[in-house]
Design brief:
about 775 residues; alpha/beta; eight-stranded parallel β-sheet; five-stranded parallel β-sheet; 22 strands; globular; EC 2.1.1.14; zinc ion binding; methyltransferase; methionine synthase activity; 5-methyltetrahydropteroyltriglutamate-homocysteine S-methyltransferase activity
């Protein structure tokens, strides 16, 4: 029985790639230095999988930003603004597309399906001159081979690539991206031919869009594309890999009929209905790569259940055609549990990170081949039993409180229009009020103090003093810039979810459980292992301190329940919505304590609400119902004069705009600038929005500083579709990842633009 890994984390066990990237971007190291770190990480990953006994080891899953951008580079599909003139694409062009540069903005970034990972969205049109412009896939295959490791080169499939793209600015909306398929396939043929010449015997084509609801012409594109590639693929074993959800029945028929394809990979963790399709019909002589080890979560596999599933599949496809696999790339999990020295032994026994999942996949494959590791299987059964019976998992009071939520929709008693009037009387804000999203730059010194406080090297008194000084600096800067609604800058927080999870019961934390979000940005998701409650106030001390430093409104800053849920590793022993309701009740307690503490504006971020939307439309309504309800629970008890903000970023929002309205927030700030003001189109199409809204006026994920004229132009576009009395002016997202040398001029230009338009509106009266 063979084993396979779909993909593996890139950052390294101690975020080696992150630090190498940031050093390169800051000009402190060379491209050669970056490539050396990358090569060392790849070598270690291949060696680890090989030594574990993995037969099908992936290559070309290691990206300096993301795998879709790698594909854009491979195809030479560089937008004209980056000045690419042909030849092999270098790091300068590559990172300009990802991050922008001093003269041009970055390409749009959005969520990778329903994960917290992001990708750079290709910008395509009829004029794109596709060419084979990055030989990375072939080079990495050769690199592994030189180390004595035979790998399966992985490419984003051609149809998924086009369906994950967007029409470039200026291209007709009606333009069919699939019309570019013949040009794209010509480059894929070159790549595949070169891989064959290098000695590859297998190739993996990731086609994750196959789990979506696809119209007939899109399914036909798959049939046509693989028929066109058939002769080029001849002589190779071809795996088409899917993940993240069930395969629709009609899509399954199309997929399993594709020309030139040897094997099919399915997510059997999140795609349990796909199992029924396989049982009903699977093409004779083809390989089934069975994704039974969860690539999206960190819980130990249930060996007994997996063996049962695999034995059943073995009877359908044959022993020699079944391959044990991960459900998706392990990119979405932490790297190695060995690095966790502070987790207690009980919780640690319940977990498996990427390195442990490689062991799990191979243990299952060996067990099915008659070489069961009895000690490993016994330890697995004991850990599962421990988790089921542990008293730390269950809190009866929390369960009763969550059960009592049934029967109410938890709406505030007064409509948003009346609330906004009451809030304006209290806050007395100008037209087009300015604000920021929450965080301010986190300096090296600030991170040092926070790190040393956690390590008990700094006293609590000295820590509070340092945080107070930082908050005062941020408050003074905002007053100097004349921003209307202030934030305290969140100096006490490393991560918006981790900070809250550390203060809630039912959460555990890792020391090195980092997961890549985009580029060099890593997050450390908490582990929700049990029922959730709030033992004491979490933010009131800092928010009240900040409010005492200014007469301007100070926002209390919270992370919403859906975002905490979606950005955590969530327990898999109860439905996600039940866990979300528990978190909502904990945040509700915090909101009401902030209000009692004199905070009149409270922001409850739901950055990840859209991210959790199921991939299949039939499941949308149920998710949106409980997700929106969870948000309303958090603030249903506040007074009309307390203004509730929320924030969302880097997803496609237009299709859920009515659910966003149903959240009943007083003000929503939402990403807009990096996606070419795509959000505004929903208002042009007639959607009426009566609450306050702040579509982002500049992209904070790029070091580029926008001019006041550029920001004013963006605000004027907003005023064409939104009433001036509901429009706010703010950046796209928090400022934590930027430097003060970028933040100060950008915010100054933002405030200047708002003041200019206020004066123009006043003159026009």
């Amino acid at each position: 029985m063979a084993s396979h890994i779909v993909g593996y984390p890139r950052m390294g066990p101690k975020r080696e790639l992150k630090f190498a990237l940031e050093s390169f971007w800051d000009g402190k190291s060379t491209a050669e230095d970056l490539q050396k770190v990358s090569a060392d990480l790849r070598s270690a990953i291949w060696k680890q999988m090989s030594e574990a006994g993995t037969k099908y080891i992936p290559s070309n899953t290691f990206a300096h930003y993301d795998q879709v951008l790698d594909t854009t580079a491979m195809l030479g599909a560089v937008p004209p603004r980056y000045g690419y003139t042909g030849g092999e694409i270098g790091l300068d062009v590559y990172f300009s597309m990802a991050r922008g540069n001093a003269s041009v903005p970055a390409m749009e970034m959005t969520k990778w399906f329903d994960t917290n990972y992001h990708y750079i969205v290709p910008e395509l049109g009829p004029e794109v001159n596709f060419s084979y412009a990055s030989h990375k896939a072939v080079n990495e295959y050769k690199e592994a081979k030189a180390l004595g490791v035979e790998t399966v080169p992985v490419l984003v499939g051609p149809v998924s690539y086009l369906l994950l793209s967007k029409a470039a600015k200026g291209v007709e909306k009606s333009f069919d991206l699939l019309s570019l398929l013949p040009k794209v396939l010509a480059v894929y043929k070159e790549v595949i031919t070169e891989l064959k010449a290098a000695g590859a015997t297998w190739i993996q084509l990731d086609e994750p869009v196959l789990v979506m609801d696809l119209e007939g012409h899109k399914l036909q594109a798959f049939t046509g594309a693989y028929a066109e590639l058939e002769s080029t693929l001849s002589g190779l074993n071809v795996l088409v890999e899917t993940y993240f959800a069930d395969i629709p029945a009609e899509t399954y028929k199309t997929l399993t009929s594709l020309k030139g394809v040897t094997a099919f990979g399915f997510d059997l963790v999140r795609g349990t209905k796909t199992l029924d399709l396989v049982k009903a019909s699977f093409p004779a002589g083809k390989y089934l790569f069975a994704g039974v080890v969860d690539g999206r979560n960190i819980w130990a596999n249930d060996f007994a259940a997996s063996v049962s599933t695999l034995q059943e599949l073995e009877g359908i496809v044959g022993k020699d055609k079944l391959v044990v696999s991960t459900s998706c790339s392990l990119l979405h999990t932490a790297v190695d549990l060995v690095n966790e020295t502070k987790l207690d032994d009980e919780i640690k026994s319940w977990l498996a990170f990427a390195a442990q999942k490689v062991v799990e996949v191979n243990a299952l494959a060996k067990a099915l081949a008659g070489h069961k590791d009895e000690a490993l299987f016994s330890a697995n059964a004991a850990a599962l039993a421990s988790r089921r019976s542990s008293p730390r998992v269950t809190n009866e009071g929390v369960q009763k409180a969550a059960a009592a939520l049934k029967g109410s929709d938890h709406r505030r008693a007064t409509n948003v229009s009346a609330r906004l009037d009451a809030q304006q009387k209290k806050l007395n804000l100008p037209i087009l009020p300015t604000t920021t999203i929450g965080s301010f730059p986190q300096t090296v010194e600030l991170r040092r103090v926070r790190r040393e406080y956690k390590a008990k090297k700094v006293s609590e008194e000295d820590y509070v003093k340092a945080m107070k000084e930082e908050i005062k600096k941020v408050v003074d800067l905002q007053e100097e810039l004349d921003i209307d609604v202030l934030v305290h800058g969140e100096p006490e927080r490393n991560d918006m979810v981790e900070y809250f999870g550390e203060q809630l019961s039912g959460f555990a934390f890792t020391a090195n459980g980092w997961v890549q979000s985009y580029g060099s940005r890593c997050v450390k998701p908490p582990v929700i292992y049990g029922d959730v409650s709030r033992p004491k106030a979490m933010t009131v001390f800092w928010s009240a301190m900040a409010q005492s430093m200014t007469s301007r409104p100070m926002k209390g800053m919270l992370t919403g329940p859906v975002t905490i849920l979606n950005w955590s590793f969530v327990r898999n022993d109860q439905p996600r919505h039940e866990t979300c309701y528990q978190i909502a009740l904990a945040i509700k307690d915090e909101v009401e304590d902030l209000e009692k503490g004199g905070i009149s504006v409270i922001q409850i971020d739901e950055a990840a609400l859209r991210e959790g939307l199921p991939l299949r439309k039939s499941e949308h309504a149920f998710y949106l119902d409980w997700a929106v309800h969870s948000f309303r629970i958090t603030n249903c008890g506040v007074q009309d004069t307390t203004q509730i903000h929320t924030h969302m970023c880097y997803s496609h929002f237009n299709d859920i705009i009515h659910s966003i309205i149903d959240m009943d927030a007083d003000v929503i700030t939402i990403e807009n600038s990096r996606s070419d003001e795509k959000l505004l189109s929903v208002f042009r199409e007639g959607v009426k929005y009566g609450a306050g809204i702040g579509p982002g006026v500049y992209d904070i994920h790029s070091p580029r500083i926008p001019s006041s004229e550029e920001i004013a132009d963006r605000v004027n576009k907003m005023l064409a579709v939104l009433e001036q009395n509901i429009l706010w002016v703010n950046p796209d997202c928090g400022l934590k990842t930027r430097k003060y040398t970028e933040v100060k001029p950008a915010l100054k230009n933002m405030v200047d633009a708002a003041k200019l338009i206020r004066s123009q509106l006043a003159s026009a009266k």
